[in-house]
Design a protein that fits this description.
Chain lengths: 240, 219
Amino acid sequence: MIRTSGLQKSFGSNHVLRGIDITINPHEVVVVIGPSGSGKSTFLRCLNLLEKPTAGQVFFRGQCITDPHVNVNEVRTEMGMVFQRFNLFPHMTVIDNITLGPAKVRGVSLEEARETARVLLDKVGILDKENAYPSELSGGQQQRVAIARALAMKPMAMLFDEATSALDPEMIGEVLDVIRTLAEEGMTMVIVTHEMGFANEVGDRVIFMDEGVIVEEGPPEEVLGQPQNPRTQAFLSKVL
Amino acid sequence: MALDFSIIPGILPALLLGARLTVQLALIAVAIGLVIGSFVGIGRVSGNRVIRTITGIYVDFIRGTPLLVQLFLVYFGLPSLIGRPVPPFTAAIAAMGINSGAYVAEIVRAGIQSIDRGQMEAARSIGLTYAQSMRYIIFPQAFRRVIPPLGNEFIAMLKETSLVSVIALEDLLRKGQVVITRTFRPFEIYMAVALIYLVMTLAISRLVAWSEKRLKVVD
Ligand SMILES: Nc1ncnc2c1ncn2[C@@H]1O[C@H](COP(=O)(O)OP(=O)(O)OP(=O)(O)O)[C@@H](O)[C@H]1O
Ligand SMILES: [Mg+2]
């Protein structure tokens, strides 16, 4: 579904991604772990072209989306993204946050968009908050709205960038539950997280990134259980 | 010579007539400024380097030179270039409108840039175009933040209109000067002029504070 080939990204002289080759299959859940500053967010943001790669290619459903002729907006509708800091639109109610994309981008009627939004709000467990403003919600609730907002576009894949890192501990579970449900439903997902237990549980594959390269990858029990690379071992011994 | 404020009621109508022109000039100038400033402000944050440079030069030129010089450029300078005189009122609103545009542009730019980067990213990530993201996400939020500085800009413009008295427009200050030539009461009359300016600027800042509070409700 998503494939990168020799993906590189520099910010000035800071060479953040140094050649990433990866293939993410349909219905696969890939978990990306690694130390702070290793380029995990940058990698994720290159997948939906929020960052423009400096070299290499990104393919999405067989199409090379780094090609300058590709309509980036269209591609992004197929790849939902969830951010560490939620990034809900504070001037809009919950339901308007969710219906904006379908209505303005997909051209869905407001009626239909609202119906879909309610189904999604129900799914993430906050149907009663549709008319609230983001500032009236807890962090966990905001993040669940953000997930619903991304899902409203009916994307083929979802990207999560440390979706629970900004949350109080007691709210992490409710957000992980939603992601777990998506995994069970077969959503293709790339998840950057520091929650090793969760990585182990939902990941079909774990990728350990360090200094802009994939150091080690494989099934969670191998990468997290018996890491082969010394850098992976050092990282895991620090976080576990 | 003792102060004698008893002359004020008699000359008040004349001063208020001047005040009306002052308000008119400020309103028209800021209205023009809003139109120019919105476009230029957006141009200042454009991804296009040429647009950024051109708008930057405009803003720097206007803000780096005195309004009085700009007014003279239009009123005295332009006629020699186009071969016919520019009426004082036209010259005044042109110079002040273009001047205000630069300040409004900076307000708009700052307003846009004060919105968290994550807002644009979230908007783009659901497939909205740059223009749609600006329209639905960035502008509505920036709008609330530019109201107070725009109010200040209007107050500044209202005071700066007093410069037009030098090109013979009968604004508040000019009216005061005219009345003084009849009454020989400069202190009392300039005091009255100052107070009328003060009443107007205070009224505007009250209005801004009120609208700010109204807009705070959802934030
Ligand atoms: N927009 C940017 N401009 C300049 N440098 C950037 C930008 N975004 C990221 N970087 C740099 O790229 C490097 C990798 O950042 P990135 O956010 O991808 O790391 P990360 O693995 O997600 O770290 P964390 O776990 O802290 O989120 C860092 O050195 C960071 O300073
Ligand atoms: Mg990160």
